[in-house]
Design goal:
By secondary structure, the protein is mainly beta. The protein has one helix and 31 strands.
Length: 318
């Protein structure tokens, strides 16, 4: 009954909260799959075999990384889907996860204009998420919910730890990359020590189904769920806040101080901006045309969002 009441309040606030339109937009070459930022550089992984780098402030294309076509199961040529992209701490290196033939995936390092393959399709590694830990180490999550620490120089996996029997969904490193929050289809969020791969904390009770996306900022974790809820866990107070929505929450993010949450709130692809102190919806961001897949806070006043289309939206909070 309490959940129903909270949902009704959310709907009521959605009609009364101020509406914000995008500050600007960037049309890319293909549909966005993954995005990451470093300073004014915005990197976009697409479903058309490209990683594009834009200056998000000016909306200008700076660089394109193109991957060769592959053969599909019928033998026809197709553009590979680029599943993920991440940058190291100073923006000099990229790690790129790309579709390969026969349902496999490959992993590339991009540095000084050169692509180096780190993991090829013969490894049969069902990678789902890959992020830099530091310049020489990557954290890899596989579809079967196994975390791996990979050393770039030696191309060796330093550890493998299976978190649970549930299918993996998403992970996010904290600011110093010492911990990672990962989610799965069970709704449980695992906090793992990156250096050892050991689980140090388990968060449950918020989401009851698959958690599509997580964020990890200032000792707070945002979990965006299939059960039409966004949940904010405070690791210090060990409390959580539930935000019911009217649709599956595919994307969300916390601002750097975790005082704000932004996540999809309805089937119209609107983004709700919530104050995590008052727990109130403060603004509705309208403009996304397709299902949201990524939201990133640049700072406390600016956000970037992507959807399952070729439009990247830049938002500025008054």
């Amino acid at each position: 009954m309490r959940t129903v009441w909270l949902f009704l309040l959310t709907v009521l606030f959605a009609f009364s909260a101020p509406i914000l339109k995008p500050l600007s937009s960037i049309d890319i070459h293909g549909n966005a799959v993954d995005i990451t930022i470093h300073g004014s550089d915005l990197y976009i992984a697409t479903d058309s075999g490209l990683v594009e780098r834009y200056n998000w402030e000016k909306g200008t294309l700076i660089e394109t990384i193109q991957f060769d076509p592959i053969h599909d199961f019928m033998g026809d040529l197709m553009k590979p889907k680029v599943f993920g992209v991440d940058t190291n701490h100073d923006g000099t290196k990229l790690i790129i996860q790309v579709q390969e033939e026969d349902g496999e995936r490959a992993l590339y390092l991009y540095h000084q204009g050169k692509l180096t393959q780190l993991i090829d399709k013969t490894a049969h590694l069902p990678m789902r998420e890959v992020r830099f830990v530091d310049d020489n180490h990557l954290l890899i999550a596989t579809m079967d919910n196994t975390l791996m620490l990979f050393e770039i120089d030696t191309k060796k996996i330093l550890y493998r730890h299976k978190l649970s029997l549930s299918v993996f969904s998403d992970f996010q490193l904290n600011e110093d990359h010492s911990k990672v929050a990962s989610s799965c289809e069970s709704g449980i969020v695992y906090i793992t020590d990156v250096k050892s791969g050991k689980i140090v904390k388990t968060l449950e009770g918020g989401n009851k189904d698959n958690v599509f996306k997580v964020d990890f900022k200032n000792n707070h974790i945002l979990a965006c769920g299939q059960d039409r809820k966004a949940v904010v866990y405070d690791l210090k107070s060990q409390k959580m806040v539930l935000y019911p929505t009217s649709f599956l929450v595919y994307a969300g993010a916390l601002n750097p101080t975790a005082s704000l949450s932004a996540f999809g709130i309805n089937e119209e692809n609107d983004i709700g901006l919530y104050d995590n102190q008052t727990k109130k919806l403060t603004m509705v961001l309208k403009g996304a045309q397709s299902t949201l897949n990524n939201i990133i806070f640049i700072d406390d006043k600016r956000l970037i969002s992507s959807s399952d289309d070729n439009h990247i939206l830049i938002w500025r909070i008054p």
